[in-house]
Amino acid sequence: MDQPYDEAVQYTSDLKKPAWKEVNVWPCTGRSSSGSGVSFSCPRVFLCLSLLCLMGSLLGHPQCLDYGPPFQPPFHLEFCSAYENFGCCDQERDNSIAAKYWDIMDYIDPQRHKLCGTYIKDILCQECSPYAAHLYDAENPRTPLRNLPGLCFDYCSEFHFHCRSAISLLMNDKPIQECCETNKTHFCNLLHLHDEDYCFPNVLKNTALNHNLGSVVEDRKGCLQLCLTEVANGLRNPVLMVHANDHTHRMFVAEQVGVIWVYLPDGSRLEEPFLDIKSIVLATPWVGDERGFLGMAFHPRYKYNGKFYIYYSYMDKNRVEKIRISELKVLASDVNKADPLSERNLLELEEPAANHNGGQLLFGVDGYMYLFTGDGGKAGDPFGKFGNAQNKSTLLGKVLRIDVDGKSPNGKPYRIPPDNPFVSDPKARPEVYAYGVRNMWRCAVDRGDPVTKKGRGRIFCGDVGQNRFEEIDIIVKGGNYGWRAKEGFECYDTKLCHNSSLDDILPIFAYGRNVGKSVTGGYVYRGCESPNLNGLYIFGDFMNGRLMALQEEEKTSKWKKQDICIGSTKACAFPGIISSYSKFIISFAEDEAGELYFMSTSYPSAYAPHGSLYKFIDPARRAPPGKCKYKPVPVKTKSKRIPFVPRAKTVLELLNEPSTTQPPLKSSTPTGAIPTVSAKKAKKTPSAKIKASTVKPALSGKKRQKIKAEAKQHKPKQKVKAARVSRTTPAPPLPKKKSSHLTRNKNLLPKKATLPKKKIEKRRRESR
To answer: Where is the Glucose/Sorbosone dehydrogenase domain (predicted)?
Structure first.
């Protein structure tokens, strides 16, 4: 990955307002009339309103003038109090509007104070409306901003009749004063909105628009409407993204081939990788191969000791395939480079087959490291009388817990936590923390509720099923998760399943093949930017690109599943927001601030540079401006910074394309808009060149053929970012008067290994 094709985009936690620029929206230089008999002062006015007519039905959604979703103000609004529960103003903006109001009122005839004051306040406060962007024509960044919000004709007529002298105070534009103060029809036509439901004050009375305002948007089928931003692209099966928890807010993205890249808070990527061990990592170009670089975790005290841990497939000198978990350190001379010579092996496990390699590493809130291993591969865990997963004397098919800060008396490079559940069992390995797992792919620690800390420390995992069920589990000390006796809630091995001694932990959720075929575990959202998502466990399915969420019911402690739909042109019509993603969901991640991401690809080969990183955005509600601000600790960079270049078209770019172009596919069904392949099932061979004939089959035939067939249908598209047009302020300043009221050179994709017909047929017969 030598070419600079995969940079990350930085989306700061508070949405900065664009620099406002004065634009004369309504110059009245002459008179022209439309075919409808409505008079307009200039052709540009008609053009503006025509654009609104074209896009109004698509873009009528809650949005503020800074292009972001509305929010709940952190403090009481004294002036525009109608929007103190949900809108687009914080206390500072509310005070600014109030000051402008009193400045205007100083110029109003005292006899009209009461009547005109109400109109003027209502009009000024529309900046705080959850639909401010629609009222001011701000949803399309290419159109100029109105000086005044869209008013319903009757309301506008009453305002003009009683308070037309205030027009010159609200809009500091002499041509408009001359042509509009005396012509009510002309003035109200200028303020007319194509969609009558959104004009003020009708927008306040529309129950459809205000129903569940501020909650996560659901479509008619109950699918949660979320949006995405593209953060990185051009990645070769990105298997994970982690942060170092060192306040630098860097993101470390690992590719299946064994390369880790550093993304900085400004969205750029460093040209030189943090770590490159592709010469050691066993990965192949075979579609769906599960081997490769699989896991990474930073030590909880990384800021002070510079230690981190990796989990990868490799082949030893005797050509035996193994899993290796090792410790490395960062270079003392460069905080953005690991020292490959510092590698210290902690644990090695021989892999009986090429699949089911596990791969998750993480540190719990107890400071111990948790390792998640697969059951050894093949199908049905055929190893021994009960399989590896139920055999506590083997480390395969387990959740392991070790103390990396100590050494065992027997010479092991780690210590066994004294409270591990099987330390006193002579028939069990002391590292075992939980067992009976098949192939857990992606686990995460819940940070806990930001206020109450409820849920803190829970470990959620997605366990990939055999051929009937995929499941989500919460890890319990000493727990038996049932495999191979059970798959999901049902029996798999009938004889083992009816064993009365089997005391297994049931999943919190399981789904069948009608929903998906290979679960990718996710995270419980605990970030700041999208408060509606707090407590939602968001995960997906690798094979069909389906995104889902689980919500825990407080009274019953049961989990309710909802699908997540991406790409609604109405819900996601914000600058920088995209409407599609690559289908094959490889992994989920969270950054240092707790915001949630996922990685997917359109072609699941470890060598294919078609992987992308996306960030979840809730279009219905954001945090108040300034609440999510953070100051990353600066880091010295010796490597060149490569700026991020987006490839995906945003929703607004798609809407601005000529009408001959087909509109983007709406994600009305809970599947990915563009198929892609995941790193969860695709891993690459090391630079130590291994002949295909000497390597174990990468995947069982049926599964590999399915992934390959689906991946061929989808090719990533290059996207071009559209320039934005700056806006005017909603209202110009008044004459100053003291108020008494308020102060990569591209690497060629290796040719796919050709296999003899007999081997292909053999793989087809094998199950996954």
So the answer is: 236-561
